[in-house]
């Protein structure tokens, strides 16, 4: 094998060992997030934000796992970020936040999906993040945005 194939194999081998070392509930959440990323991305493109959010909320109530809640919000956020890093196209903040929100909703974790904006000399910027117990999860840049109500 040439050097790049060897590096690729070692990288995936290490990721596989890490995955196998996770508790089964966390492996399930990671796989769930990997499945939701392309579905939610397609829904956003075809139907827009409000229809996608409505669909995810309905799906959460139909397929909830509140009785199986064993993961905390930080763990779900970390697993969602890990799943995002494994996708071919790195998801933007809105897609990551919608998937994370859906996974938290399914497990009965109270949270808020926040959308914010800011304007500076370089233009208008929008951002999405998840808040849990009034704190932004895995996102320090949310402080610089004005929240939309």
Radius of gyration: 17 Å
Largest sheet: 4 strands, antiparallel
SSE arrangement, N to C: HHHHHEEEE
Helix content, binned percent: 55-70%
- Average pLDDT, to the nearest integer? 88
Q: How many E strands? A: 4
The shape is globular
Provide a descriptive summary of the structure in words.
It is built from 5 helices and 4 strands, in the order αααααββββ. The chain is α+β, with helices and mostly antiparallel strands and 149 residues long. The chain has a domain at 23-111. Strands 3-2-1-4 form a 4-stranded antiparallel sheet, with helices on one face. A hairpin with a 2-residue loop joins β2 and β3 (135-136). The mean pLDDT is 88.
List the keywords.
single chain; 149 residues; alpha+beta; four-stranded antiparallel sheet; 57% helix
Task: Give a short summary of the structure.
With 149 residues, this protein is α+β, with helices and mostly antiparallel strands. It contains 5 helices and 4 strands.
Please write out the topology:
Blueprint (H helix, E strand, L loop, with lengths): L2 H19 L2 H24 L1 H14 L10 H14 L6 H14 L5 E9 L2 E10 L2 E2 L9 E2 L2
Antiparallel strand pairs: 1-2, 1-4, 2-3
Helix pairs in contact: 2-3, 2-4, 2-5, 3-5, 4-5
